[in-house]
Structures are given as C-alpha cells and as structure tokens.
Design goal:
140 strands; about 5% helix; 15-stranded parallel beta sheet; globular; mainly beta; 95-stranded parallel beta sheet
C-alpha cells in the first residue's frame, strides 16, 4: 500500500487537472485545487460523469444519483442527503477511479451521505489508493440512515472496500454487503501524528463482508505512530465475514508490535456472527503491551468461526474474547492458538481442532456443548515430530465444557503421539465430560496426557483417558507426568486406560512430579494387548528384559509430591495376559527410585494384577520409596497362570505403611509361587548408598490368601540380606502388623507357609556372595490367625537364617494351623493371650522358639510333645517365659537336652508327669523322687511356676518335690499346688501352719496359712517365700497385726477368687480389722504377690500396705484384689494384664526416690496422694482424688519405652509437674499414646503439664475416651509428622499462676513453665463446645501476667458446637497467635468444627489475650441436598445428648470419617425407620403375592383341560371341592426405590380350600403364613406375616371373572441404627377377567386384565437406641391400585400310565398408581421440629414372568413354578411348590 504522503501529492495533482479540463471551476484556490461549492436540490434522476458536476451539497429530493466519478475532492466537506427512497450508485466503469468516496488531503475533511435507501458502489479502483471508500489523517466519512449499503469489486488486485488511514468511516445502514475485494474493511494507521483509524458499521439487519485477503482488519503496518488506535467495530443483526484466501477478522501490527499504537476489532450481532478464513478465521497479534491487539466478538444467538488453519489465533500481546457476554452458542472449526503472551477467552463454545498455547499465551474456553480438540500437524503447534491435540507450552489453557474431547492419531514421522501436552511450565485446566485419546503404533509411542515441565494439569468432571499403541510393539502411557509437573483429577469419575505393546503405564509420575486423583471413582487400567516375545522386538535387549504393564508407576520424588489417591473408590488393573514372555510383569502399583505414593483416608481400593505367562504384582515398592496405603479397605488381587503371583513386594529400603482399616491380599498362581506380602532382595548391583533393608508397616487389619497350584505359597515372605559392604549400615527387612492378621496359604503340590523369614546370604551362579546375611523380621501385634495347607509341607511360621517372627501381644489371640519351624538361628516368639497351635513346633540348628505371653496368656493344644529341638547340624531351643501351658506326659524322642527352657510363666502338670514318684489319687505318697530323667534331660527349669494339678497332696511329698525341682537345674522355679492338702494318712487339711507350708517352698492355692501370733515376718524364723490362699493370725479381729515381708523374700496370697473375701483372718475365720503389711524396709526388700496366673485368684487384703524399699514390689499377678490402703515411699506396684488392684487410699513418693506404677492391669484408688519425689506411671492408674503435697514432685506418665495412663478427679497438683511421654514406636495411633485425664478442683489448673511426644492430656474430665473419640472425629492424622501431642478440654479451665501447659510433641522431659500456655508445632487443642458454651467463658483462662503462645502449625478442633461464639482463650497478658489460623477462602485451615456447624469467623486479640471462634449453624438443606431431616438437624441442640436421638445424630455429625454423601446416607438411614429395610414394600408385595396366587387357582389357565367333574375326575363325576397348599421361596432386591435399597427373602406357605361349585360360581378360602428378613443400609428386619383370603370366580365356557378379598399383617422386628417393632397391615381387593382361546391341539391362550386395590397401613411407631426412644415415626395410609394386563399359555399332554402334564407360561405388565409414593412424619425427642420423609412403596410398573409345570394323576395334582418380577428399582424371584387334593 502507498504511504499517505505519496498518495496525497499524487491525488492533489490528478484531481486539479481533471477539474480544470472539465471547465467546472467556479472558484480558484491557490495551489490549483478547484471545486464547485453550491448546494443543489435535484429535480430528476442525475448522472455525474465529471467531478466538476458534483455540487458541494446535494439534496436528492426523491431522485436517484448515478456517479461515474469519485464523490468528494479529498479536501472539502461534502454531503448528499436523501429522503429515504433514493438510490446512489457510484460506478468505476473503466477502472479509472482511485476510490468511490474519498476524504483526504484536508485533516478536517468531512463527507456525509444520509437518509438514502440504497448505496451501491461497484468497480475495481485500480488507481492510486485502490479503495472504494477511503479516508486518511483526520478526515471522516459518515454514511447514515441508509437502507442497503453495498460494495462490489471485480477481484482486481489489492483493493479495499472500506479503507481508512488515520480517519474515520462510519456506516449506519439497514444492511451492508461487501464482496469482490481483497479487504472488505481495512482500518489502517496513517503514520502521521497520533491519528487513529476507525471504521464503524451499524446495521439493522445483516452485515456480509467478504474478501480474498484479510476480510476485516484493524492493522498497524509498522507505522511509527504513538498512542493511536486502529479500530473496527461491526454491529448488526447477523454479521458474516469471509475470506477466500487469507484471514477472516484481524487485529494486528505487521511489524512485530514496536509501535505504541493499538489495534481493535469488535463484532456484535443480535443473531449470528459467521467468520470464515482460509488461514486464520480470527487473528490478533503483535500488540506492544498485553491486550493491545484486541478482538471481541459477541452475538445474541450464535457465533460460527471456521479457519482453514486456525479458528482463533492470538499472538504477541493480543487478546481475543469470543462471546464475552455469554449470550451466544459458539462453534469453532479449526485450531485455537495463543502464543507469545496472546490470550483467548471463549464462552459457550463447541470446537473442533487443536488447542495450542505457548510462550505466555493463554486460552480460556467455556462451553455447554463439545470441545473436540484434534491434533493438527499442518500447523506449528508441535515439538519435534511429536504432536498433541491440546498443548500448553509456557502458557495456560482453561476449558470448561459439557464435553471436552482431545484426540490424536500417529502419522508418518511421529515418534510419540500425545493427546494433551504440557511443556515448560504450561498449565491446563479442563472441566466437564473429558475424553482424551492418543493412538500410536508402528513404533510410535502413545501418551494420552503428558506434563513435562513444572506446570499443572487439572481435570474436573467425568474423565476418560485412553493411550492405545494399537497392538504394536511400543509403549502406551495414559497419564505421564515428569520434571516437577503436576496433575490433578477430581469430579465424579476418572478412567485411565493404557493399551501397550511392549509396556503399558496407566499413570506414570517421575522426577519430582505430582499427581492427585480425587474423583469420586477412579479406575486405572494398563494392559498389554500384543503377544510379542522379547526376541521378536527389534533392537538390543538388556539382561532381564521383560514387558511391563504398570497400572501406576512413580519414581524420582525427592520432594513432597508423588501420587496421591483420595477418591472414594479406586480400582487399578494391570494385565499382561497376551504375552508369551516369562519375564513380563503386571504391576498394579509400582514405586521405585525415591517414588512416593499415598492412598488417603476413606478410599476403598481394589488393585488387580494379572499375567498369563509372567509375574503378577499388586504393589511393588523399592529404592527408598515412601508409600502410605490408607483408606477404608484395600483389596489386592494378583493372579498369574505361569509365573509368580505377589500381593505386595518391598525391596531396597522403602518406607511403606499400609494403613487401610482393612487390607485384603489375594495371590493366586497356577504354576508359579504365590506370595501375599514379599520383602525380598535381588542379585543386582546397588549404589554404595543403598542398602536392601525394607521395613513395611501394616496399621490396619490384614487378610492374606496365597494359593499356588504347582509351587510354593507364602502368606508373608521376608528375605533380607545386605550388600557385601559396610555391613553395620544395614537396618534389615521387616513386615510389621499392628492389628489383626489372617493368613491362608495353600499349595496343591508343594509347600505352604503362613509366614517365612530368612536372613540368608545371596550368591550368584558362581557361589560368590553378593549379599551377606542380614536382619529379617515379622512382627504381628494383633490377633493372628494362620492356616497353612500344603501337599509336601505346611508351615504356619518358618524362621530361618537369623530371621525373627513375633506373633501376638497383650490381650490378643493367636491361632496357628500348620507347623512352626525355627532353624538356622531363626527366632519365633508367640506372645498372644490365647495361643492355639495345630501342628508341631520345631526349633533346630540354632533356632529358638519363645512363648512370651503375659501372665494371663494361655497356650492351647500345646504340650511338651509338640516340640522338636534335635537338629541335623545342631539343636534348637524352646523358651517358655510367660502365660500358662499344660505340660502333658513326655513321650517325645525329638527333644534335645535342656532344649525346653522354662524361665517364666506357669506350667500345669500332673505330678506323675514330672517326678519319678507322683502323687496317688489319695495324695498320701511321702516322697516325690527326682524329676523324671526324660523330663530332666529335655527341660531346663530356670524360673517361673510349676502348677501341679493333682487333686490331693501332702506336705512331706511336696517338700521333696520342691527340692527335686530345684536340684534338677539349680533354678528358682516356684511350685504351686491347687489340690486339697491331706496328711500322710489322708486327712483333709484346709489350713496348716505357715511355717510348715513355707518349708515346702510352694504356693498352696487352697490352704490357709496359720500363725499363732498376731504378727508374722516373711524372711525370718523359718518363714521364707510363703504362698497360701490366705492368712490366719492370732488374736482377735480387733487386735493389731503386722505382716512383714523382707530379706528379699516373697509372700503370695492367692485368695478365693472373690474380691470381698478377706485375706487376713483370725483363727476362726473372722476378718482382721487392724492389719499392717510392710513390704521391705530401708535395709531389706520384699515382694508381695497377689494371685497366681493360671489359677482362680482374688480377694480383699484388709490391711494397710507399706512399701519401704526401692527394690520392694507389690505384684498383682492375676485376679481382682482390694487393699484398704497402700503407702509406697519407694518401690514398685505392678498390676499384670487382666488383673486389678483397688484401694481406698494410695500414698506415694519420698525425696530422692522413684515410685513405679507399672503393668497393664488396672490400679484404682479412691484417693491418691503424692508426697514428693518422682512417680513413674507406665501402667494404668486411676484416682478419684489426686493431691500432690510438694511442688517439686514429678509425675511421669509413660517413659521412653512404655506408655502410661493416669486418670484422676479433684486433682490438686500444688505446682507439681506432670510429664507425658512414650517413645514413638512406628505405626502409632492415639490409642497407644500416653494419656492423662485430670479434673482439677474447681477446674483450676495448678500443675505444670508437659504433654510431650505421643501424648494426650484431657482436662475437666476423668475419661480419656472422650479425647480419642473427638480426635477420630477430627479426621486428623496422629504421628510424628501429624498431630504429635494433644490437649482435650471438656470444661472451662483456669490456668493458675503456679500452673502451666506445654503441648510439644518433641519433648521428653518436664518443660512446662508456670503461668504459660504454649501450643507448639504439631499440637492439637480439642475443645468440647457443649462443655464451655457460648456465654463468654473461655476454654482456657489465664491469670495476670500469663503468656499464651500458639505456633504456626498448631491446630484447634471444636466438637459438639451450636451457633454462637466460643471463647477459646482469654485473660492472657502476653499472647502470640501464629497458629489456629482460618479463613473462608483457604482450604488448609487449622481450626475446624463438625458437619452441622461452620466457622463464620475467628478473632484474635493479642492485647487482651482473647481468641474466639464464631460458629454458625450450617444451612442443612442447602449444604446437604437430599438429607432427610433438615429441620430437625437445623433445630437440634447438640449439647442435649441425654436424648438418644440427639446423641446419635450428633455422633454422626462429629464423625469426620464420613464424607458428605456418607453422612447424608447415615442420617437418611436413621430417618427411614422401618422403611430402611423395606417394611412397607415387603408387606405390600407379600399381600400382592398372596392375591395373585389365589387368583391363579381360579384361572382358566389352571383348569382349561380339566373335565366337567373337575381335576382328577371323569366327566360324569361330581366336583366336591379340593384342598391345596403352596410353598413360596421369595428373594427381593430393591435398588434406590425412593431412596431405599435393601435385599430380602422370605419363605411362606398358603393353605386353601376350594368349595364345591354352585353352578358357574366357584369359591374358596385360604390362610397364609411366612417369615423372612430384609437388610437395608443401616438395619435388618426379621419379619413374619399371616393373612386370610376369600376368593371366587364365575366361569363360562371361554370367559371367567375372578375376585378375591384379603387381609394380611406383617410384624417387623428391626435392629440397626434404631430398633423398631412395627406392623404393616394390608387390606386388598382384586378382580380379573379372562378369555380362553384354544387352538384345538391341546394348547390354550388366556389373555387377561385385572384391577387390584391395596390399603397399606404401617401406623405409628418408635425407634429406640439402647432402650431409649430416639425417634417417632408416623406413616400415612396408602391406597394403591394395580392394573395387570397379560397372557397365559397352557398345554396338556398325557402319559401311558395316566399322568397328565401341563407346562404353563405367563407374562404380564402391571401398572401401579395411587399412593405409590407415601410419606411419614418424623420427630426426635428433645428437638422442637419435625420433618416429613417421602418414600416409595411400589415401582410405577413392573413385568412379571412365570413358568410352571403341573402333574396330575387321580385325585392329586403336583406343581412347581418360577416367577420373576422386574421393575425400575425392585425385582424379585420366586420358587413355588404346590399340591392339590380333589374330593
């Protein structure tokens, strides 16, 4: 195009010459320019040929103008005015015109054409400016109030229709049409000053613009303008812009945006905008600053944009906005491209083409339709030879659409195919139904979603992702995230499928990338679809080459990312079935090389790995992986036909926790090994820093099934060796199970092992040691059940080569089926409470098996003959150190010498099985002889107890037995006898001299030790280690008595088993009332034992017990004992598991000493006083009152190794310190933390409370369970990296000056400071809202000068809250609030409440020390759409938990393990009452079944072939009636019938009698009865029903009318969320009409129609919880009508022996109407509100199909049948048997 200065000079000369030649100049002006200036009013149509003929101003006056010359001289104002009826034509007939209308030269030149019906401009304008309508500088052309404006060119060269270079063109017309030009509208900057170039078109109807170049453009052609604008604005009813050879609509600077000028193109249409371009339909680029190149397109109905290359293009600093007003439906055909800072924003669009954003370019598209992104390799939107349908490269893309599709197929030249690509920090967000497909093949990898560079991909909605290698030998990856990229999936569901040839990865995350899968349902599927063998794949193949199907793969995560699954439901499938490759592997989850993977809480996970010819692995973790597999339930299925099947495997130093509540592992192999849990090493070289130790922790219940058809099966397999380097660095391999473990291992042809552990070295094929012997262990703390069943061997437990297995712990049961083997220095510990072994116990070649149960443990099905200790190379050993075991009669030849070692615990035996001369039945033998030689050889008696079970014994024999026992191994075995004491002549003794009894050295469990004096000392005067049932002392009951235990001796009192029976009595059996028991003194220690494990124990030690030596001890071994009072200045009080010690007063402590309260039993004191010193509580201590007298005293609850529990009411600590601290054990939960619950006097906290690591303090309550319940509600995580210390405040507390609180999970010693409350990082404060209320009383109030510090990561949880403001803290002088943070728009908050509440605001006042949380009641109906009790929940006071219903609903609200949908479901289950298990539906359908059965009796289908006399009668016989019975078995399945789902079944019988007919009238009566059950979401109904019916029919030859009337009652007994007793009563009336159609060949057809009425009354009833009324339900009566229409078919055949056979079929559809949808009113006691719940009794209609067969002979007819009913939500099936006898 010409520059403006060139055009001005040229035009001025040409125009002046032409006017002079035409002699039309009326005025001459210097410079040679001359024009006519008159105004002319036309009187006729006028034609202008010469410029001089055209007046300055023309009034058309109803006449038309045709001009063959340009209008306007370019330098003066001109105008033409019409009356609205004229036509103006400007014609360039000979291509001699520069333009048709021109305003130039003069900066203020104005041309106005107005009020003209038609303006038609035609020509080619090949001279000079090449424009039909042209202006520059400040000139303007206004065409106003025009009917039709059109410009038609002849497609000659570079021609513009409307062209401005610095001036303005304005057109207001009814319609505008431009065609035949290069540019229809071209607003171009002029290059002079700051002139803007603007073209504006306003049309009442359509604007149609077309060109061969850029049809419409606002451009800056590299002009040096400053701060000017080139703008185009089009407004019409419909706007069409088309370019046949270039861009459709453009706004750009041609020279790269160096100018300060701006370009703008704005299009608005009332109806439709259509833009088409041969290249880019819409093109904006090269603004200097962001948005300087601008395009906006809006329409009222539709915007259709189609580009041969791109539909939309936004380049450097451009902004394209499509449908910003959101009123149109947008259709985009072609790519959408934004790059170099360009932006594209589109609303409500359908799109087909690629979407590409790069170098800061952003795209945002919203749509109610479909975005169909298809990769386009013709455009520069790809990297190398790779392509994608949606690409973000250093840019952002946001698409929100109902449907989003992205697809790509490989073409020649590709090496990888992508559906969606993110590079260099690009971000993509998709919301809608998302479908991504990438098809590779022929060597081209397929990766559906690829993020390779730090950006974030987010997909929200229903997401389907497919990567398909199309059955070729290449890789497919569904989601591929690398190099710090992020991917997030949420919404309803996410489905990822990878179909690979050599390898398939459903999801792959590497190199510090992260992915979060949070959709409700997530399914990931990785499959190999080809059958290639390794040698069929081109290229080199490394050793161990295999093909992998990895459902999820993650590695290289050194930061905090990795993969997180938080879906409700997660399914991952990996399948390599087609592969004929033994090295192939299918792995559902695989993490290695610093991988990180997390399955969150509340997830239900199913992992499936399947391989026909290779290995199947559920979860693979290795190389420093960090993994946490949590959730509700984790199911792992690994199935291999020809290879190994492995549930989980961990190798090479991973950190793995399986924390799902329940983990189920199934490993099944046909010809390979099966491993449930595998911790193993491989013969591979490892980095110097890598050691093959793998510790895997299972914190939930675990069930394992391992099954192999041909090889070995292992439930748990741990083989941990270590590299042949720096051996001390190895930490070993271990599998830890903290809860229940259930294993079933089965092998049909080989060994089956429940748990196998080995630390054996690993060698290569040349026997070179690669890995030396390592540490290996399995530890099971919960209940353990193992069943091993193999063909060649069955091992429940097998420890070898230094491996160690421990099963069971305090209070847990162990049940083992299969042999137990410890060999080659293997170690097995059996530590349960009840331990049962079905199999042999073998410890050989250095192996050790230990039975280490606590004192109350028992070992069942085990005796001395169960053990094998003789080995091939060396022997093994069995240690018995705890619990009780029956010894049995030794006849075992497999025990090595002294290999059964008793060093604790209790052995029960008959004397004859231990000693050479056992007791006789009379018990009179006087000498035991020695220990049997076989016993003495096999058993080493070191310590513990031998309990002799003989019925009678005598002291002389017992004394020799004790000596023989001690002499056998020089041990300290105790001897306990349970039988009756007799003299040597057989006289029974219930008491004996204490000295005589002590002289035996045994405990006499059934004998009273008699002392003639008031006092007795154990440890002197021949009384040593006395053990008796109780003591009888001299003197009267009131005389003071003292029992002293010293000189390191023991007194054992067993008692009678009743805690009320006195243990110290007079000689006549009266309880002593003044008894002192001294256990040691300052110089000597002593031990008082109460009870004996393995025996009935318990009693009342009616004495004051004083413990006076550091080494003295009161030990409660078993049973419950009362002691009047206990004073322990020093020493230990220990209560064993299952035992209890109760006392009125417990006084402890002395200066410089530590008193230990230990054991896992219960120590209870009405009053506990701490004098001074240190009190160490590692057991369970409870005090009604707790007083500390010395502020320097310290109470330690828990130690570095053991947790403790202290509970006290009316606590007064007097400034003393309380420290809570047990060490972190791993797999920690709040349940095994140290706990203290203190109710301070008047709630004044006057102690220094240090809540250290793994500890919980409760204030204002003596119930530690409240804190645990509240913590479970909070859904926070307990542990070193979660909540590490917690404080629960049940009632408002006041911090006294001498009191202090420190919550810090890193502390291990007293650190709290007076007058300070400190909440450190990782701490949690739980406040009971109902306890503090909303009246301004603070949960914690400080004194003057007090300090409150809340650190950044401190958290706060409020439970049981109503609407109001809760004061958490006040009165503190110095405050720091860095934690307890909350804001409405922040997802991560430190303050939370339950489901019925929401935080409105928090307020922190550092000056006054006040911290308040304002809670508002949640809008229940709005937040929980579909909840059944919105009004009740809204009005409910959560504090009124004395009402059962409020308590239950509050519990649900507090239970944060329930998500939103689960909470709604739980509340609705409560609200549905009896209907949760389908009471009304069951009763109604039972009544319908009865009526339908009875009507079938009268049907023509049943007796069309019967002779006149009736069934079984000849034609001349008389029909005298019949009796009949039918049995029915019914199964129901109801799915979401009005929100109710349940499964049910019942069995019923109907017994009836048909009367003899009266003419055509037949009738009868029937009785029905049945019972069954139905199970809903929260309840089970056990019901029974009965009914009475009368029925009849009027039969003609081929027609029949049947009726019945009946009443039935169903009684419901419902147990569940609420317990309900209710009745459903149904009154029914039915009528049916039939027509018989007989084909004459024994087959008959009976079409029928009927009508049935049912009145259903469920009445009113209560729902109870624990016997208290929780809810009242009042149901509406329902009137239901049923309209069945159907047809029956019947055929009869006879047999030679007189049987008649009648097969029958029936099909019908039943419409139901009336009160199908019933309702009931619900109230909850204590709540002043009610709700009304609707529920469905019946489907709106259903099909019924029946099949039956009858057999008749003589008077008897037998039948069987099947019926199926199917509706939209309910279906059932029935099996029927019937019999009829005809009279």
């Amino acid at each position: 195009m010409l520059k403006l200065s060139q055009r001005e000079g040229f035009l001025s000369r040409k125009i002046a010459c032409s006017l002079l030649m035409a002699s039309t100049i009326s005025v001459c002006i210097s410079g040679g320019d001359a024009w006519a200036f008159e105004t002319v009013k036309l009187t006729q149509d006028t034609i202008y040929h010469n410029s001089g003929e055209i007046p300055t101003a023309i009034e058309m006056n109803g006449h038309n103008i045709t001009s063959y010359i340009m209008f306007g001289d370019g330098s003066a104002d001109r105008s033409i005015t019409g009356t609205g009826v004229e036509t103006l034509q400007i014609i360039d007939a000979d291509s001699s015109l520069s333009c048709a209308i021109g305003a130039f030269h003069d900066e203020d030149c104005r041309i106005v054409l107005s009020n003209i019906k038609n303006i038609d401009i035609t020509g080619s304008w090949n001279k000079d400016v090449h424009s039909a309508v042209y202006t520059n500088q400040k000139g303007s052309i206004t065409i106003d109030a025009v009917g039709a404006f059109s410009v038609s060119g002849n497609n000659a060269g570079d021609v513009q229709a409307l062209h401005t270079m610095g001036g303005n063109i304005y057109i207001n017309a009814d319609s505008v049409s431009i065609n035949g030009v290069s540019n229809a509208v071209f607003a171009q900057l002029g290059g002079v000053g700051n002139d803007s170039a603007k073209i504006k078109i306003v049309a009442g109807n359509n604007i149609d613009l077309s060109g061969t170049g850029t049809a419409v453009a606002a451009v800056n052609l590299n002009e040096p303008d400053s701060y000017s604008t080139a703008a185009v604005a089009l407004t019409g009813k419909n706007v069409t812009i088309k370019s046949s050879g270039g861009k459709g609509l453009g706004s750009y600077a041609a020279g790269g945006g160096g100018s300060n000028a701006k370009t703008s193109a704005v299009v608005n249409a009332e109806g439709t905008v259509t833009i088409e371009g041969a290249t880019n339909a819409v093109h904006a680029a090269n603004g200097k600053n962001a948005g300087d190149a601008f395009i906006s397109i809006d329409a009222g109905e539709a915007i259709n944009i189609s580009g041969g290359q791109n539909a939309l293009y936004s380049g450097s600093n451009a902004l394209v906005k499509i449908n910003d007003e959101g009123t149109a439906k947008v259709s985009l055909t072609g790519n959408v491209v934004a790059e170099n800072g360009g932006q594209i924003i589109v609303k409500n669009a359908d799109q087909t083409g690629a979407i590409y954003a790069a170098a800061g370019g952003d795209v945002k598209i919203t749509s109610s339709g479909t975005i169909n992104a298809v990769a386009d390799r013709s455009q520069a939107i790809e990297s190398s030879a790779r392509s994608g349908a949606i690409v973000a490269d250093s840019a952002d893309i946001i698409i929100e659409a109902e449907n989003i599709k992205a697809s790509n197929r490989s073409v020649s030249g590709d090496d990888r195919v992508y559906g969606i690509v993110l590079e260099n920090g690009g971000n993509i967000t998709l919301r809608g139904n998302i479908d991504v497909k990438a098809y590779g093949g022929n060597g081209v990898q397929s990766r559906a979603v690829r993020n390779n560079g730090g950006g974030t991909f987010s997909a929200v909605g229903i997401v389907n992702i497919l990567a398909d290698a199309q059955d070729t030998d290449t890789v497919a990856v569904g989601v591929d995230v690398w190099n710090s990229g992020k991917a997030g999936f949420s919404g309803k569901e996410t489905n990822v499928t990878a179909l690979g040839g050599t390898d398939a990865y459903g999801v792959q995350v590497q190199s510090n990338a992260g992915a979060v899968f949070a959709a409700d349902n997530t399914v990931i599927d990785a499959r190999i679809t080809t059958s290639y063998k390794p040698d069929e794949i081109a290229g080199p193949k490394p050793d161990g080459y295999g093909q992998w199907a990895n459902g999820v793969y993650v590695s290289g995560i050194t930061g905090s990312d990795g993969i997180t699954f938080s879906s409700k439901s997660l399914t991952v499938n990996a399948n390599t079935n087609p592969l004929d490759n033994e090295l192939s592997c299918a792995t559902a989850l695989r993490s290695e090389g610093y991988g990180k993977i997390t399955i969150g809480d509340n997830v239900t996970t199913v992992l499936n790995a399947e391989s026909d010819n290779g290995t199947a692995i559920g979860i693979w973790t290795s190389y420093y992986t960090k993994a946490a597999f949590g959730g509700e339930k984790l199911t792992i299925n690994s199935i291999s036909k020809s290879g190994d099947a492995i549930g989980t495997i961990a190798v090479w130093s991973p950190d793995v926790v399986y924390s799902a509540k329940d983990t189920v592992i199934n490993a099944v192999s046909s010809t390979g090994n099966a491993y449930g849990v595998d911790i193993d090493n491989h013969t591979q070289s490892l980095p110097d820093s890598l050691y093959p130790s793998a510790v895997v922790n299972h914190t939930g219940n675990v069930t394992i099934a391992a099954q192999s058809q041909d090889k070995e099966a292992f439930g748990v397999y741990v083989h941990s060796a270590k590299p042949n380097k720096e051996e001390s660095s190895d930490q070993g391999g271990a599998a830890n199970f903290s809860k229940d473990l259930n294993i079933k291992a089965v092998s049909a042809n080989s060994n089956a092992t429940g748990i196998f552990v080995s630390g054996a070295p690993i060698t290569d094929e040349n026997d070179q040691v690669l890995f030396t012997a390592g540490q290996a262990a399995v530890n099971v703390l919960g209940n353990t059940t193992i069943v091993a069943s193999g063909k060649t061997a069955s091992y429940a437990l097998h420890a070898a080569d230094g491996g160690q297995i421990t099963v069971g712990s305090m209070g847990k049961n162990v049940h083992l089926t299969g042999n137990i083997v410890a060999e080659a220095n293997g170690i097995i510990n059996i530590n349960g409470k009840i331990n049962t072994v079905n199999g042999s116990i073998k410890a050989v070649d250095g192996g050790i098996i230990s039975m280490n149960g606590t004192s109350d443990a028992v070992y069942n099905n085990i005796d001395i003959n169960s053990f094998v200790t003789k080995g091939t190379d060396s022997n093994g050993k069995v240690n018995f150190s705890g619990g009780t075991m029956d010894f049995g009669t030794l006849n075992n030849q497999n025990l090595a010498s002294n290999s059964f070692v008793v060093n604790g615990g209790s052995l029960k035996a008959a004397s004859k099985d231990i000693f050479t001369s056992g007791l006789t039945a009379a018990g009179t033998a006087i000498a035991s002889g020695d220990v049997l030689s076989v016993v003495n050889n096999a058993v080493k008696f070191e310590s513990g107890k031998l309990i002799l079970s003989d019925e009678k014994y005598n002291l002389a024999w017992l004394k020799t037995a004790k000596a023989a026992l001690n002499n056998a191994d020089s041990g300290t075995m105790g001897l306990v006898v349970t039988g009756t004491l007799v003299t040597t002549d057989g006289k029974i003794q219930t008491e004996a001299s204490a000295s005589d009894l002590a002289d035996t050295g045994a405990v006499h469990a059934g004998v009273t030790g008699k002392v003639d004096t008031n006092d007795v000392t154990i440890g002197s005067s021949g009384l040593e280690n006395l053990g008796v049932k109780d003591l009888a002392l001299g003197g009267s009951a009131a005389d003071a008595s003292k029992v002293t235990v010293g000189n390191s001796k023991e007194l054992t009192l067993v008692g009678s088993g009743s805690e009320n029976d006195a243990l110290v009595k007079t000689s006549d059996g009266t309880a002593k009332t003044d008894v002192a028991v001294a256990v040691g003194d300052s110089a000597n220690a002593g031990t008082l034992n109460l009870g004996v494990a393995g025996m009935t124990s318990g009693g009342n030690l009616n004495a004051a017990v004083a413990i006076g030596n550091d080494d003295s001890k009161v030990n409660v071994d078993a049973g419950t004992f009362k002691v009047n009072e206990i004073s322990a200045d020093k020493g230990t009080i220990s209560v064993n598991e299952g035992a209890a010690l109760k006392t009125d007063s417990l006084t402890v402590g002395s200066s410089g000493s530590t008193v230990k309260l230990s054991g896992t039993g219960a120590l209870e004191a009405q009053s506990m006083t701490v004098n001074t010193g240190t009190i160490e509580v590692t057991g369970t201590a409870k005090a009604g009152n707790l007083t500390v007298n010395d502020s320097n005293a310290i109470i330690s609850v828990g130690t570095g190794n053991s947790a403790g529990s202290l509970v006290a009411g009316n606590a007064d600590l007097n400034g003393a310190a309380v420290v809570l601290d047990p060490v972190w054990q791993g797999n920690d939960t709040i349940g095994n933390a140290s706990k203290a619950a203190l109710a301070f006097t008047n709630n004044n906290v006057n102690g220094l409370m240090t809540v250290g690591r793994n500890s919980v303090l409760s204030l204002g309550t003596d119930d530690t369970g409240k804190a645990e319940q509240a913590f479970a509600e909070s859904e926070l995580t307990w542990g070193e990296t979660g909540v590490s210390a917690a404080l629960y405040i049940d009632q408002a507390q006041k911090l006294q000056v001498q009191g202090g609180i420190l919550l810090d999970g890193t502390k291990t010693a007293a650190a709290a400071e007076a007058n300070k409350a400190i909440f450190a990082d990782g701490s949690l404060l739980i406040v009971n809202g109902s306890g503090i209320g909303t009246n301004g009383i603070a949960a914690l109030t400080g004194e003057t000068g007090s300090t409150l510090t809340v650190s950044q990561r401190a958290k706060l949880y409020l439970t049981s809250t109503n609407a109001g403001t809760y004061t958490i803290a006040k009165g503190f002088t110095n405050t720091t609030f860095d934690g307890w943070s909350w804001s409405a728009d922040t997802a991560a908050v430190d303050v939370s409440v339950n489901k019925l509440s929401e935080i409105e605001k928090i307020e922190k006042n550092a000056t006054s020390g006040d911290f308040t949380v304002t809670v508002r009641q949640t809008d229940i109906q709005k937040k929980y759409d579909g909840i059944a009790l919105p009004h009740i929940l809204q009005a409910m006071d959560q504090n009124r938990t004395e009402y059962a219903g409020i308590k239950y609903l509050t519990y649900l609200a507090n239970d944060n393990t329930l998500d939103k949908e689960q909470f709604i479901a739980a509340v609705n289950g409560f609200a549905q009452g009896a209907e949760n298990s389908g009471a009304a539906h069951s009763g109604t359908m039972a009544a319908f079944t009865i009526g339908d059965t009875i009507q079938s009796r009268m049907s023509l289908v049943s007796d069309v072939a019967a002779p006149q006399g009736g069934k079984g009668k000849d034609t001349d016989a008389t029909d005298n009636g019949s009796i009949w019975a039918q049995y029915i078995h019914n199964k129901d399945k109801v799915d979401n019938l009005g929100g109710i789902s349940y499964d049910g079944q019942y069995n019923g019988v109907i017994i009836g009698s048909d009367f003899a007919p009266t003419g055509k009238y037949h009738s009868g009566v029937a009785f029905s009865y049945g019972d069954g059950s139905s199970t809903g979401s929260v309840s089970k109904n056990d019901f029974d029903f009965w009914g009475l019916s009368y029925y009849g029919s009027i039969k003609n030859d081929d027609t029949n009318v049947i009726f019945d009337a009946g009443y039935s009652k169903t009684s419901n007994d419902i147990k569940g969320a609420v317990d309900i007793d209710s009745d459903t009563k149904v009154l029914t009336l039915g009528v049916k009409g039939e027509k018989l159609i007989n084909n004459g060949h024994g087959t008959s057809y009976v079409p029928y129609a009927g009508l049935r009425y049912l009145n259903v009354d469920s009445g009113s009833y209560n729902g109870t919880i624990g016997g208290a009324v929780a809810a009242n339900y009042s149901t509406d009566k329902a009137n239901i009508w049923m309209l069945p229409i159907g047809i029956g078919v019947h055929h009869e055949t006879g047999t030679a022996d007189g049987w008649k056979l009648r097969p029958m079929a029936d099909i019908a559809y039943v419409w139901t109407f009336g009160d199908n949808n019933s309702a009931m009113d619900i109230t909850v006691p204590g709540v002043n509100a009610a709700d009304r719940l609707g529920y469905d009794i019946m489907d709106s209609g259903f099909f019924i199909g029946k099949l039956g067969l009858e057999a008749e002979k003589g008077d008897w007819t037998y039948g069987l049948g099947y019926a199926c009913q199917k509706g939209s939500h309910a279906q059932n099936s029935k099996f029927m048997l019937n019999v009829t006898y005809s009279f």
